[in-house]
Amino acid sequence: MNTIISIIKLLGGVALLIYGMKILSTNLKQISGGKLEKILISVTGNKIKGLITGILITVATQSSSATTVIVVGLVNAEILNLKNAIPIIMGANIGTTITSQILRITSLEGSSWISLFTPAVIAPILIVIGLLLMQFAKNKKTTTVGQMVIGVGLLFTGMLTMVDIASGFSELPILSEILSKLSNPILGVLAGAIITLIVQSSAATVGILQALSITGIITYSTTIPIILGQNIGTCGTSILSSIGGSKNAKRTAMVHLYFNLIGTIIFLIFIYSFQFLIGFSFWEEAVDMGKIANFHTLFNIISTIILFPFIGLIEKLTMITIRDNQRTSEEDEANYLSVLNMLDERVSKIPNLAITNSTSVIESMGVLSEENFRNSMLLLKDFQTKKLEKIQQREDAIDKLDEEVVEFLVKLGSLDVSKQESVTITALMKIETEFEKIGDYAYKFSKKVEDMHEKNIKFSEIAYNDFERIYNVTEDAILTTIKVFKRKNINDVIEIEALKEFAEMQIENNRNSHIQRLKDGKCNVESGIAFLELLTICEKVIDHCLNISIATTNYMTNENFVTRQEFRKKVYKTKAEILKNKLNQCNHKYAK
Fold first, then answer.
1. Alpha-carbon Rg of the chain, whole angstroms?
2. Which residues face 219 on adjacent strands?
3. Is residue 419 classed exposed, middle or buried when 0-12, 13-18 and 19+ CB atoms within 10 A define those classes?
């Protein structure tokens, strides 16, 4: 019975350790306000800087998994390329070993004055300081700092709890038996990998091992394979985060796996060959916290030194593993809903990455809407039932994406996010609604064309040419809007305004011309009504394009434009000449 109680207390210590790391990591990312991602992006192209940045960010966040998940998200969003991501991931593996070096401090002993600075004394002091900061905080930043301080205190408290409980396990025969079996390299590696997959933290696995080392029955032969295994197990988080992402996002996760797998194989071959042929004199000696921490650090540093010159080969290996299959457009369309995997609930725990993924999903809505609008025009030229069915499938996909991304953003907005993140989330909710409406109008376009086909309604050559010009303006407006949303360039925003102004004049002219043709008997009433309805659809689509550009500008400039007039007054005050030039370009490109 006492053993069961001790195991429960030990698990409680593990939980405190993991929770402390989680609080520290979460609040540091919160206080960074997206700066971590910007730092990662800034080191693009320099391998050494990438390596060092990966180390520093992982030391700060106390989680290599968190760093790797962010990197996977940035690669998936095409902000970071695969080759530049590899040294960052290598650095993250080294950075995560700092946790075990910090945890070894809990074994410090010394004179009375030194004992005042040991974790046993510092941990409760940190928790008290953290609580006081939270209690008397006058702003959110102070509260976040207080939570970070508490996280460090809980981390040490959890480790001290594990050490205290584990010290009574030294005489348990079953523990000695289990540990002796784990000295088998295969079983030890598997155990390390499985435990890390369960607790989702390689640092926690090493912490458990360090706590058990207090018993004096853990040897090098047991420690080495478990530590090698936990480095493989920690790849589970990044692999999960890449599911549903782009091929390069999946390759980034594979880089993490290959780095640890190859490093583990190299160490296993060298260590066990040496042990078999010559033998380590210390092989069956007991290890302590410091020795465990040192081997953990040594493994990752040596693996990086060995593999760093082969970054290009690792990249090629991942590309061989996950190939660029030549797929038809129909196969791509059949998989358009795969982007929904980017809205995994786990991603919401990293707000900046969640926003990046949401942006990618909304961009997919825009792309599908543009495809439907373009294919509706192709229907007008050459009606085919199969094309209409494809448009229906895309419209269903847009509706599904709309439903899922709204739910995801609402949940994300309810979390503890920064002010800038809150502004961005609000803007994204407006933008995705506008893209969904563009999709609706594109679908209405196709249904109107279907109705015309069934009733054998055709435009005159003049009417068709007039409408084709307005269609081209509208199509370019959609494409430019997607570009604005992706690149967030103010000059692209002005181009949409120019397209809007030009389209308004042309649509009015076309309406008047068509009404005159009706009066002159050059067009019949049914084709006239169809022509005017399609013109209205184009007009509405361009309205929604402008709304998206306004909402995008809102979080580009930290402004809050309510009306189009206010938007123009503030944004185009110094851009009048650019707008004039854009209008002239429209006249040359689209006018008769």
1. 30
2. 286
3. exposed
The strand pairing partners of 286, in sequence order, are: 219
- The 8 Å CB, 24+ separation contacts for 30-35 are 30/144, 30/351, 30/416, 30/417, 30/418, 31/141, 31/144, 31/145, 31/148, 33/418, 33/420, 33/421, 34/352, 34/418, 34/420, 34/421
Residue with tokens 């040294």: 87
Measure the CA–CA gap between 472 and 474, rounded to whole angstroms: 5
Tokens 């970070």 correspond to 148
Tokens 């707008």 identify what position?
579
Smallest CA-to-CA distance from 580 within 498, 502, 458 is with: 498
Joined together, the tokens standing for residue 343 give: 């809205």
Provide the pLDDT for residue 553: 77
Q: Is 137 helix (H, G, I), strand (E, B) or coil?
A: coil
pLDDT 10s digits, 300-352: 999 999 999 998 898 889 888 887 654 444 444 445 556 666 676 656 667 77
**Structural domains present in the chain:** 2-321 (no CATH), 327-456 (1.20.58.220), 459-592 (1.20.58.220)
pLDDT of residue 341: 64
Cα end-to-end span (Å), the chain: 91
How does pLDDT run across 558-578, given as a tens digit for each residue? 665 556 666 666 656 666 677
pLDDT at 172: 56
Are 435 and 366 in contact by the 8 Å Cβ rule? The answer is yes
**Cα–Cα distance measured from residue 139 to residue 277, given in angstroms and rounded to the nearest whole number:** 63
Question: At how many degrees (to 10) do helices 247-277 and 311-321 cross?
Answer: 120
Predicted TM-score of the model (pTM): 0.58
